Amino acid sequence: MMLNVQGLRTGYGRIPILNGISFAVREGEFIGILGHNGMGKTTLLKALMGFLPATGGHVRLDGADLTAAEPFRRARLGLGYVPQGREIFPGLSVHDNLRMGCSKQAGAEQDIIAEVLEEFPRLKRLLDRSGGALSGGEQQLLAIARCLCGKPRLILLDEPTEGIQPSIIDEIVEVLLRLRDYSGLTMILVEQNLDFIAALSKRILIIQKGAITREVQPGDLGDPSLVGEFIGITT
Length: 235
Ligand SMILES: Nc1ncnc2c1ncn2[C@@H]1O[C@H](COP(=O)(O)OP(=O)(O)OP(=O)(O)O)[C@@H](O)[C@H]1O
What we know:
It is a single chain. Helix 3 packs parallel to helix 6 (about 135-150). The protein has helices at about 40-50, 70-75, 95-100, 110-115, 120-125, 135-150, 165-180, 195-200, 225-230, and strands at about 5-10, 15-25, 30-35, 55-60, 65, 80, 155-160, 185-190, 205-210, 210-215. The longest helix has 17 residues, at about 165-180. By secondary structure, the protein is α/β, with parallel strands linked by helices. The structure holds adenosine-5'-triphosphate (ATP). Adenosine-5'-triphosphate (ATP) binds near residues 35, 40, 41 and 192. Keywords: Amino-acid transport, ATP-binding, Nucleotide-binding, Transport.
């Protein structure tokens, strides 16, 4: 297993949010984590990146225990993060946003950006525009592209469809499918958009109140009773 999470606990101050999360991800796998608002999806990704300290359990990457590792060390070992709300730099151009993502390999910056942009024709046309002047969907594409500039091996994606118009959601699906099928990248997607998560994930974990309660296959999400019972949202 590439990533092994065992009994992970964390929270904010003294408020526990993750109550012992366990799952494992194989290299090259695309897994979805589905849960509705407030179930702990963002908290889980922040804990995996080291932005929130674990209060219990373990996180192992390629067998190495990263439970107490600083975020920069996790990034150096290949963890990439596309945060909820994108967090691009609104005052910087698209090109400069991508340069910020390259900080690890300063020397090869232009080559890395050119290579990443091959997957993002829409961004190629927007390189001089400031990040803040992009649409939400374009910002999301930029956030994914910027993450790729850091040459991650495992990417954590936090609700990439949030607040984004359907036509560009389709484009995000296409980009992620190509990455899934041709790049060898490992990806963990947290979402509450059923169609999006089903289109991309090979298997789906359901998160409820800070715990993984069930694993389902993408096809199972067509069953409204299962969806209603385990996820608490209606299709
Ligand atoms: N900084 C914080 N301080 C205290 N509680 C927080 C903080 N951030 C989140 N929480 C709480 O932790 C719980 C889980 O939040 P989290 O953001 O992980 O959920 P989520 O599943 O990602 O939901 P959403 O889809 O709304 O982002 C919620 O009850 C939330 O109110």
